[in-house]
Amino acid sequence: MIWGLGLYLLTNEAFWGVVAIRFNVREGKRLFSIVGAGDIPAKILSYFSASILVLEVGTINLLWVSIIFFMGVYLLLRSRRHQAVEATDDMMSGSAASSHAAPVHTHPVKKVIGHYFHNSLIFSIALWFLISYCVMLIIDYTFLAEIKVFEASRRQLASFIALFFGFGRILAVLFELLFSSRLVARLGLTNALLIPPVLLFLLNIYVLTSGEAFLKYLYVFGGMVLVAEALRYTLQEPVVLVLFQPLDPHARLRGHAIAKGYTLPVALFLVGLFLEIYLRLQGELFVDTASWLILVLMVAWAGSVFLIRKVYHTTLVSVLQKGFFTGTRLFLQNPAVNEMLVEKAGSSKPQEVIHSLNLLERSGYNDIYRLLLKNLKCPRPEVKEYVLTRIIENNMVGALPLVKEQLENLTEPTLKPLLIKTQYFLEKNNGGIKDLQHLEPEYRKEAMIGLMLHKEQVEPWVIQELTRMAQGDTSEKLIALNIIAELGDKAYEHLVAALLQDTQPKIYSRAIEVAGRSKYFSLFKQVTEVAEKTGAYRSLHRTMLFYGDPIYKEEYIMKGDLPEPLVNLLCKTAGMAKGLNSTLFLESALKRYPAKTQQIVEALWEKKAIISIGSKDILNTWVNRKLDQSELKMEYYLNLAQDGAAILLQEALYSEIHQDIQTILKALALYYDQPRIERVIELYKQGYKYKLSNAVEMLELLIPDKHFKDLDKLIEFTQDVKHKQLSRGPSEDISESEIVKDILQRNNAGCSAWTKAVACYLIPRLQDIDFPLEVLRETDGKEDHLFSETKNYVLSMLS
Amino acid sequence: MVRKIADLLHVKYGEVQLVSTLFLTQFLMGTAVAYFTIASLTLFLYAYGVNNLPLIYLLGAVFLTFFNLAFVRLEARIGSYRLLQVILLVSAVSVLICWVFLKFFEFKLFSVF
Questions:
Q1: B35 closest CB neighbour out of A46, A148, A726
Q2: What is the ipTM of this complex?
Q3: Where are the domains of chain A?
Q4: Which of A208, A234, A245, A308 is the most interior residue, by most CB within 10 Å?
C-alpha cells in the first residue's frame, strides 16, 4: 500500500520532470494535456480489464500486469532514446549558465520562502497542491469508508474499485474532449484552477443541505471522487505544470519536486494525523464533519488560486526584466576619491585621464586649472583636445603662453585648428584683419570662430569679414556657413537666409543644415520651400533633427496638405524629437494622413509617446485591420507553400508578416503597458525560443484577448516557418494566379511595393496557367519606382 | 493520417515523434500503476479495513519524504531522463518482489507495505 503511493509519486514526478524541461511555456500549454492524456485510456483500460481479470486470476496475480507494463515502458524509453534525451541534456546544460541565481530575500517570510521554495511561485503552487491533496485524501477516505460497508469478498471489492475508477476515467475523457482546452483558453491558466474547488464546493453544499441517507452519501462522495480524479488529470496537473514553465529549467525541476513530491507526504501526514486522532475520539468520521472540513479546505483552495495568479504575474514580469547595472555611487566630495582621481589624471590611458579631469572639475576641485594645464603637455592628442575645449569653456587666459608654445612645437598636426581657435579666443585679437590674412582658409575659419566666441564683445571688423565671406566665392561662403553653424548666434540669421537663395546645391544644402543647427525657426518655412523646390530632402532631414521638437509647433508647420516626401520626413524626425509638439503633430497626422499610420506608429513608439484617447481609437481600428491583413498574407504564404517556385514571394510575405508583428506590437505598446510590450518586442526580435515563449505568455496578460489570439497565431506562424515546423495547411484554397492578382490589383493584404514587385515578377511563369495579363495594365498611376521598373520588365518580356 | 491527427491536436511536425513517445510512456506507466493500485488497495482494505487507512497515511508521509529526498538527489546526479528509467526498472523489480512475498508467504503485514 505504501509502496503503491511511492510508485505513484516517483513515476509521476520523474515523468513530468522529463516533460517539463523539454517544453517551454507556450509548448507546454499546447502539449501537456496531450502528453498527460496518455494516462486516461491507460486507466480506463486497466480499471475495466482489472474488474474482469481479477475474477479469473485473483488479486495478487494482477501484479504481473503491472510488472509487464513497467518493463514495457522501460524498454520503450531505452529504444527511443532520441530527442527527449538530447534536448533535455542540452537545455539543462544551457540553462546552467543562464539560470538566475536564487534571489536574496530580506523580509523574514520571504527569506523562509526563498530558502525552502526557491521562489514565491513554487511556494504558492506547493500550497495549492497541499490543499488539493488534503481535499482528495479526505474525500477518498470518506468514500472508501462508505463502500467498505457493503463489500462482500476480496475479489468483489477489487472489481468494484476497478469499475468505479474506470467510470471516473470515462468522465475524465469526456471532460477532456468537451471542455478542458476550451475552458483553459477561455478562462486563462490561473482562473481554470478555480473549476475543481467550485465544482466540489457545490457538491459539498448539496451534502450539507439535503437530508441524511446512506446511498446518497455514497453516490455524492463517489461523484466527488470521480470529479476530483477527472479534473486532476485533465485540468489541474497540466495547468499547474504549465505555470512552472516561465522559470528556468533548474527552478522548474525544483518546483516539480517540491510542489508534487514534498506536499503529498505533508498532506498524508496532516490528514492521517487528523483522522487518527478523530477516529480515536469519535470512533468514525461523520459525513457532515467531513463535509464541513472539505468546505473550509475548498475556500482555502480557491484562495490559493488568487495567490498563484498574483505571483505568476510577478514572476513573468521578473523573468522578462532586463538586468540593470546600478553602478557604484561616487562620492565626489570625498577627499580619498579626489586623491584617487588626481592619481588617475596622470594615467597613461587617455579615457581614464579625461574621465578623471571631468569628474574633478564637476566636483569643484580647487587645483583643476593647474591639473588641466599640466595635461596640455600630455603626449596623447585626445587628452590635449579635451584640455583645449576646457580652456575655452573656462576662459583660462593664463593658458595662452602654453597654447602658443604648443603651436610652436606642434607634434600633432590634427590639433592645429583647435590650438589656433584657442589662441585667437584667448588673445581676442587686437591685430585686426591683417592677422587673419596670412592664415590658410581652414585655420582662418578656426581663428574667426575663436574671435567670435566672445559673442557680445566681437570686434566690428570680424563681423564685416564674415559678411564679406558670405558674399564671396563658393569656398568662402561654405566657410562662412561653417562659422555660423559653430557659433549658433541669432545675429547671423540674415546671412543664412541669403545663402538659402544661392543657386549652388553645395551652398543651399549647407545653408539648410545651418538654419536648423543654429535654430533659426523663422527660416523654417523658407528652408522647406527650398528643399521642396530643389529636392534637398537629405539636408532637410538633418536640419529637422537639429531643430528638434519646437519646430512642430503649429506656427511653423504649414496648414493644409503637405507634399508626401515632407510628410514622411516630418513623421520620421518627429519620432526622434523629444517633446509634446512632435507628439501632437503625429497625433494630428494620424487623422490627416491615414496612409502613413505605420510610419506614425513607428515614430510614436520611438519617442515613447503618451497618446490621447482619440488616437487610441484610431490605432485600435488600425491594429484590427493590420491583423486581418497579416492573416491574409499568412493565407497567401500557406497557399504558395505548395509551390516551391514561388519561394521568393513567400519570403517577401514572411518578411512582411514579421515586420507587421513588430509594428502591431509597437501600436499596442502605445496604449497598453509600454515597458513590458517593449520587452516583448525586444525578445521577438532576438527570436530566442525559450524567452519568446515567456514573452508571449506575458503578452496574453497585457493585451485584450481579441488582439492576443490573432497576434499569437501570427507569432506561432513565424516561429513555425523559422524552425521549419510548418504543418498547417491553408484554411481556403487560393490559386497562385489569384494571389498575384489580389496583391497587384486589390491589395487587400496591404502588401509593400517590394512584395508587389516580387508578385509581378512571377507573372511570366503564370502564363501557362492562364494568368490575365490585363492585371498589369490596370494598375493605377501612383506606382512605386521599384514596382514600375519590374512591371515594365515583365511587360517587355511578355511582349 | 498522422499529420492530420497532429494538426488536429496542434502538434507541430517536428514534435510528433517526441509527443507520441511521451504519450505512450504515460499510457504504459499509467496502466502499470493502476494495476498495482487496485491490487494493493484491495489487499489492504480486505486485510485491515478502512479505519486503519489513516495509519497508512502517516506511515506513507514518512516513507514518501525519504523517497522524495532520494529522488531529488538522484535527479541532480543522473538527470531526469535516466532517473525515469531507473525508477521504472526498480518499480518492475519491486512489484515482482511484492508478488513473490504475497504469493508464497501468506504474510498479512506485507499488504501494508
A1: A46
A2: 0.89
A3: 2-92+134-318, 333-409, 428-547, 616-798
A4: A234
